[in-house]
Amino acid sequence: MQIDPMETHIHMSFQQVLDGNGIAITVTGMLIVFFALALITLYLTFLPKALQLLDKWFPSKEEHHMVADQPQTQSSFSPELAAVIGYALHLELKKHPRSR
Predict the structure, then answer these.
(1) Which of 44, 45, 25 is nearest to 33 (CA)?
(2) Backbone angles phi, psi at 21, to 5 degrees
(3) What is the tens place of the pLDDT at every residue in 34-81?
(4) How far from 12 is each of 16, 17, 21, 23, CA to CA, in Å?
């Protein structure tokens, strides 16, 4: 049996949505998404309060991480030297542009 493409018609109507319970499925899906987003919002709202309560039972340790004093050395690297090196590098890269 061969189907003639000219005889195949796709009939779309609102009645087919009603017959397939499309409205109920749509509303159910929207409610599920709404309540999931509401739960996420409530979780994020009450999280700081819950952490404050947990901090009473499990206090965080006050640790201060200090960097050990490093000996200061005299550096001959001045801002002027950095500018000269940067300018030389700029000129060199300008001579030889990368191929793209």
Answers:
(1) 25
(2) 55, 35
(3) 999 999 999 999 999 999 999 888 887 776 666 666 666 667 778 899
(4) 7, 9, 15, 15
Could you tell me how far CA 33 lies from the centroid of its own chain? Answer: 20
Rounded Cα gap, residues 78 and 14, in angstroms = 78
What distance in Å separates the CA atoms of residue 17 and residue 24, rounded to the nearest whole number?
A: 10
Is pTM, for the whole model, over 0.90? no
SS3 content of the chain, % helix, strand, coil (to 5): 60, 0, 40
| CA dist., res. 84 & res. 91, Å (int) | 11
Q: Indicate the residue type of 41.
A: T
Alpha carbon separation from 61 to 5, 40, 55, 84 (Å, rounded):
75, 29, 10, 48
Q: What φ, ψ does residue 11 adopt, rounded to 5°?
A: -105, 115
